[in-house]
Amino acid sequence: MVIEGLHHVTAISGPPQDNVRFYQTVLRQRLIKKTVNFDSPDTYHLYYGDRIGSPGTVITFFPFLDAGPGRAGPGMASAVAYKLGKGGLTAAMEALADGAVDFDGPTERFGEAMIVVPDPDGMPVELIETDDAPAWGAAPALGPFHSVTLWLAAAERTEQLLTEVMGLTFAGEESAGGRVRRRLATASGQAVDLVVADEPAIARPGAGTIHHVAFRVANEDEQLFWRQRLLSAGMQVTPVIDRQYFNAIYFREPGGVLFEIATDPPGFAVDEPVEHLGETLKLPPQFETQREAIERALPPLKS
């Protein structure tokens, strides 16, 4: 049984219209699902990804109109990075400049060219040039995730969990300036960056922060295998939760970051055809009887 790589990343944002404009128009991602927060159905849950919402391409948001600004710190994922096709960084920077979108860079990290684009709430989105991603002009413009960054007070126990319990194997390791990059030895070629900062910092959840990082498994049987393995290692793991487009289990790794393990199926075409993903509001079955009230409570959204 193998955890292939990343499934999705979920974050918190401010007003949903600003979020849609940035991820659709600026980063040229597809809005693949417009639904609601299972725990707060008067709040959207927005999903972006490639054309079909392939695992490893999906970023999701809980947008709150009144969300206060958050601040990344130890015990949180602090950045998400996408792959950008070789030679595409210049085109991306030109397009961002033409659109008056601020970005930092270009610079290099472990020999790869990159820029950092803050989203409307200040969450850093890293675009990293690689050989195995589409050109900037494609739709969507970005490849799958390149990596996530975990900000930790200490890394040893997190590394032990990733390798000894979750069974992740790594193709290589690079380190510099307090950052350790572990590249997964799987077809995804993704990476987990562990950052231990010397300066004191206090994390504050809110707009512009990452809520959790989800890893992918092929099916429910594999998910149950990993759940039992995590429980046996002393992790506090939720029961399996039906998230409509995948099943999920959640737990906090020793450094405090909220992890999820999600199944690849059933996928985002389970309740609407691929050609029309994200066009209409989809509700979990338990909320269908409340549709009129939910639609009244949600702010208007143009996509």
Describe this protein's structure.
The structure is a single chain. By secondary structure, the chain is α+β, with helices and mostly antiparallel strands. Helices cover 17% and strands 38% of the residues. It contains 5 helices and 16 strands. The protein has helices spanning 16-26, 88-98, 156-165, 220-232, 291-297; strands at 6-13, 30-37, 40-49, 58-63, 76-85, 104-109, 112-118, 124-130, 145-152, 170-176, 179-184, 191-196, 209-217, 241-242, 246-252, 258-266. The strands form 2 sheets. Strands 2-3-4-1-13-16-15-14 form an 8-stranded mixed β-sheet. It starts with 5 loop residues before the first strand and ends in a 6-residue tail after the last helix. The model has no long low-confidence stretch (mean pLDDT 94).
Distance between the termini: 39 Å
Rounded radius of gyration (Å): 18 Å
Strand content: 35-45%
Helix content: 10-25%
Uncertain stretches: none
* Morphology: globular
Multimeric state of these chains?
single chain
Average pLDDT level: 94
Kindly name the structural category. Answer: alpha+beta
Largest sheet: 8 strands, mixed
Across the major sheet, the strand order is 2-3-4-1-13-16-15-14
Q: What is the overall number of helices?
A: 5
Element-by-element helix/strand order: EHEEEEHEEEEHEEEEHEEEH
In total, how many beta strands?
16
Summarize this structure as a short list of keywords or feature phrases:
303 residues; alpha+beta; eight-stranded mixed beta sheet; 5 helices; globular
